[in-house]
Write the C-alpha cells for this entry.
Amino acid sequence: MADLRISGTSTSPRSESDIRVNVGDPSKVLASSNDIANPALAVYYSTNGGASWSTTALPTQPGDTFQADPAVDWTSDGTAWALALGVDASNNIRLYAFTSTDYGANWTFVTTVSGAQTGADRELIWVDRSATSPYKDQVYAAWHNGVPFFFARRTSGTAGTWQAPVQLSGTETTGNAIGGDITTNAFGDLFVFWPDADGGSGMYLRKSTNGGASFGSTVTVATIRSNSRRLNIPAAPTSVRGARVYMSTGAYRTATKDMVYVVWSDLSGETGCTTGNGPGTTVGSTCKTRVWITRSADGGSTWSTPAMINNQSSKNDQFHSCLSVDQTNGVLVVTYSDTVADTNRVKSHVYMQMSQDDGVTWTPAVQVTSAQSDETVSGADGNQYGDYNGLHGHAGTFFPSWTDNRNGIEEIWTSRLSVVPKQAQFILERSSFGQDEVQAMVALSQGTVAPAFFVAVDGFTPSELGITAADLSGTPSVTPTFVSAPSVAGLTFGNPTQLIAADPSLPDVPQRFTWVYPLTFTSDAGFTATVVNVALTATIGSVTASAVIDLIQQPNPYEVDGQTSWLSTDLRVFQAKNGDTRFGAQLNGTSTAAASTFIKAVIGNLNTGATGGQTYENTLSAGDTEVALYPTDSSGTAVFNFAVARVRYRGLLQDASTVRVFFRLFPALTVSLAYDTATTYRQYSDGLPNGQKIGLLGLQNNNILSIPCFAEQRVTPGTTAMTAQADPANVRDILHDPSGAEVVAYFGCLLDINQASEARFPLHPTTDGPYTGTLQSVLSLVRNEHQCLVAELAFDPAPAIDPGDGPSTSDKLAQRNLSLVESDNPGDVGSRRIPNTFEVRPTPASHAAFGLHDEVMFDWRDLPAGTVARIYLPDTGPDQVLELAARLYMARGLTRVDAHTIQVEARGVTYLPIPEGADINHTGLLSIDLPPGVRKGQRFDVVVRQLTHTGRGRKSVVEKGEVRTHASVQTGGQGGMVVWQEVLGAFQVGIPVSTREVLLADELRLLSLMRWILLQIPPGDRWYRAFLRYVDELALRVRGFGGDPSLVEPSPTGSGVPGLPSGHGGQDPHLLGFAGKVSALLYDRYGDFEGFVLDTDRGDMRFDSREHTMEDLADRAWRQRLHVVVRATREAPHKPLGMVLLHGPRPHWG
Amino acid sequence: MGRQTPPWPTLDAQIEAAGVSKHSELGKLIAENQDFGLLEPGEATDGDALPLWVRVMWRKSHPELEHPKHNPLGGYPEVLYTIHQRIMANPDEPRGSRAAAVPPEKPEKPTSKRRGGA
C-alpha cells in the first residue's frame, strides 16, 4: 500500500506517534500523536485495516493545559487503550490511562497510572496479547520520573485494576532513564528495558516470569556510544530538537527458541564516531548514526555483540528506529528514517528491513515513503521529528507511523506493509493411502495419481531461483531438491510435471511458485506395517518444506476414490423414470413410493447378483454423470435420481456387521467437506451397538448444510422426527472371503431433488422434527444446477474418520462433486459464461491467529487464453481477501470488481485466501467467461480445492476400537512442527462446448426452475445474494443462446417457458425453441408464402414453410408485433413445428 | 581562581528570542523565571534548544528531581521540550503564577468528541 496520511488536514503540527494493530481483529488499527496547537493528544483510528482513518482526541483532565507523549494498544476484548501525559499550568506531569470501547472513536479517562508522581515522562504501553500466556490481557506501562524508571501493570479482565508504580532502575542509572520499552513473549515472560543515556550509557533489562508481580535482577544489555540521549545530526540538530536514542524491543519464544531483541539508533562506532553525540550540522563529517541490534538467545540472560543492520558506506544518518516481531512466525521488521537519499544529509525517507533468521541477517532496505521530509526548512516546527515513531505488525502486515512534513507541516503518516517471507510448503492432494485402495488402483491400471501433491514456494523472485519462461511451458528444469524417506517398495515419486508461477510474465518481484508432482503405485508391497510414514522433504533456495504421507493397512470396510477424490469411483448416480429397468428391477410408477421400492430392489439385486447382466461398472458411468434437476421428461413423466455406493471389505476371519452408508446431498458445489459430526455430518444414534443410527440434516446455526437421503421413504415430517427414520436397505452385514479377497456390497438411495411438492424441512430447522409450519422440499433447498453428494460409511465401533478429514483423506467418505455446464460456440459473452454457486469454510480463528489462512486453489488447467473468472463472495469483502493475498503472492492478477467480487485471469493456478470470521460457510458464485473462439467439441475442466493447514500428530487411526496416534515427526517448520497444507475438499467444473441450438431449451427450463427456487429463499438467507446473482447469470446465458429470459416464469417443474414442454430437453433431444418477433414475411415469385424471418437476440433466423396456417400465424405476429416462440427440431431447425403467440408490445399511452 | 559568572542572557534578549512583548503572558512567564542560579553554569552555553527560562521554570516546579552533575541537560524530561513548543504555540495562555494549578484529585470522566475524518 502506498504511504498514507492518517492525521488529516490540519494547521497544528503533529509529532511523536505510536500505532498498534488489534491482533484479534486486524481490521482495527489505532494510532496517536502529539497535537501541538491543541490541548489533547490526537487519536487516529481505522476500522478497515488501515485503508482509511478517522480522527478524534483524548479527553483532557481538569486543571491540565495539554497532553503529550502518546502510547496505544489493544486488549483482546477489543478495548483500545491509550496512555498520555497530562501537563498542568504548574508544570506537573501525570501519566493517565484512557479506554475506548468503540475502536478508538470515543475515550474515557480510567486512572492516573503514575500515582502521586508529578514529573512523569515518556511512557510506554504494552498489552500481553498472547493466547498462550497465563497473563494474557495484562496491561503494562513504564515511564521515567526524573532519573528513576518506573513500571505499573493492570491485571487482566474487566475487573482488572492498576497496581501501584514500582521502581525498576537502581544505582546503575544515573541519568534520566528515558527511552525504555516493554515486550512479552508467547509464554507470558515480561521484559522491561530502560537506558541510562544521559548517565552511564548502559541499557538495562529486568525480566518477570509472573506477569510483573516481581522482577529478576538487572541485566546489562549493551552500552550506548552517544554521550547524550539525543543524537545531533544535520537532519535534526540538537540546537533545535535532535533525534532521540531509544530502545525498541521484541521477544519471540517457542518450544525451541527464546529470543529477545533490542534495536536502537546510535553512533556508528567507526573512526571519528565513537564518542560525542553525532556529526552535528557538519554534512561532511565521517561520523554517522546507524541502527543497531543486539540479540539474546536465552531469554534475556546474555546478549550478543551489537551489530548494525545496514551500515552504508555513504555519509548519511539513520534515526528513530523501531522494531516489531511478528508473533505468528518470528519475523523481525525494523523501520527507521534515513538521509541516505540526500547528499545534503537533511532530507529523510522511512525505510524497512526484515529478518527471517532471528536478526542475524537482514533484507535490503525498502523505501516506505513516497516523499522526503526535511525538518531543517524554515517554518518547521520546533519539535522537528519529535522523539519517536511507531511500528507494529502481526501475521505479515505491519504498520509504521512517523512524523512527515512533505506538505510543509508536521503530519502523521503510515503505510500498510505486506511482508513476504520466504517459505515453502507442501500441498497434499492425498495425505494417506489405504492398502486395499492401492490394490484396487493397481488392478484398474490407475496406479498413477497426478497431481499427487504440490510444492509451493513464496517470497522469491524468479531470478533468485533461476526460473525462466521456459520452465513454465514444459517440464521445469528448475525444481526443488526432493527427498522421500523411507524408500517404499511399489511407490515412486515422479519429477515435477509442471511449474506454475503466480505471475507467468515473471516480473522480478517476489511471488509464489508451485511445482506439480505425481506419484505412482505399482504394487502394495510397501504396506509393510499397520502405518508406514513416508516423510517428504523439498528444498529450494534457502527454504525447506516437509510433509508426511501415510500408507495404512485398512482391514475395515472402505470406499475407493480412484484418481480424483472429488469423483469417487465407488459412488455413482443415475436417473430412471416409470417403466425403466435397471439391474433387474423395474420402476413402476411416478411416486416416491415407487422410486423407493425400485432403489431397494436395485440394491438387493446388486448384492445378490440378480441384475440381468448389468453390473455396477458397465452400467453406471464413473465419469461425467451428475444428479439432474429435471423433474419430468418431455412427456411429463417424473424423472427420479438415484445414487449407488460400492463398499469394499477384506477380511480373513471376520465379517463386517451392521455396515451403514449415510448419503448426504449438499445444496451446491462445496469444498467444505471436513468431517464434523456437530455440523455437516450430524447423525443420530440410540447409543446401542448396532442399534438405531441414521444420518440427520447437516446444520450450522440453523442453516442446512447437507440433506440425508435414503432408500426408504422419508418419515412424515409432521408426525415423526428424523431420528426415527429407518433405512434398512442401507444397513447390512458384509461377509468376508476366507481367502482374503476383496468383497463388495452395494448401498443406494433416492435423491428426491425433483419432487417439488413433497415438503420436508423448515428452511432453518432448530430441531430434528417433527416439523410443522412452512416446510421446504429438497428441490427448494437446492442452490445450484449441480450438487455435491457424499456417501459416508458408518459402523460400530465408530470408523476412523477424524474430525477435519474429508473425502480426499478418509476412505470412509466418497463424493461426487462435479458440475457440467456447457458453453456455446462462438456466441456472445453471455452464452460463454459458466456460473456455479459454491460454498467454502471460513478460515478457523485458531489458524488465522497464526497467519495460516485457508486458501481456495483454482486450478484453471487448460482453459484457453483470455478466460476470465469472477468470484463473488457476498459474505466478505474483496479488500480483505486482496489484503490477505498480497501478503504472500502479491495478489497476482486479482482485481476488485465491486464490493464483493474479485476478478482474475484464469491462467495456471490462482490462490484466494479465505478470511476468518463468519460462523457459517461462505457462499459464493464462480463465473467463468470463456473467450470467443472456443469450438464445439472442446472440453475444459477446472478444479477448485480448499486448502487448510495441518501438521504432524493430528491424524489417528482406529482399528478395532484401538486408537493410535502417529509418531510425531519433528523436522522443522512452524514452531518445530511439520506444517503443510491439505486439501479439505474439491470440486470440478467441466465445460463442454456445444451450440446454442442444443443448449437453449434446457437453459430455459433451468432458468424457470431456478427462478422458482429463488422465490423460496428469503432475502436474509445466507444463500440469497449468491443465488440471486446466479439466477441473473442464467438469464444472461438464456439471452446468449437466443432466448428471451423475460418470458420465463418461475416453475418448480421448469415449465414456465411458453411454447416448450415442461420436461427435460435431454429426454427429447430433438426439440428447440426460438423466441423473438416476426420481422418479415417471405413470398416467392409466384406470391406464395414460403416462410418468415424471426428477429431474435442472436440475430435474424429464417424459417421455411408453405403452410397457410403458419402464414396466418406469422402474419398476425408480424402485424401485431407479438412475442412468439417458434418450435423446431434440432435436425431441421429452419422448419417450424409450431408457433406460440405470447403477448403483444407494451401499450403506448401517448 | 574564582568561579566565573556565566554569560546568562538578558531578559530582553530572551523575550526578543521568543518573539513576544514583555507584557504578554509569555513575556511575563519569561520574566518570572530568571533565577539562573538554579542552573548549572555550563547550561548557559550548551547550545541546547531548551531556553534557560524554561529550565528555570522546571527546576522551580520540581526541586525534588535530580539533575546529573556531569550532564545537567539530562535532568530535564523530554516532554519539557514539548511543553516549550506548546507555550510558544499558545503565548497568551496563562501559566505559572497566573494560572491556578488544580490537580485532578477527583477527576471526572469526560469522554472525547469525535473530531472528524482524516
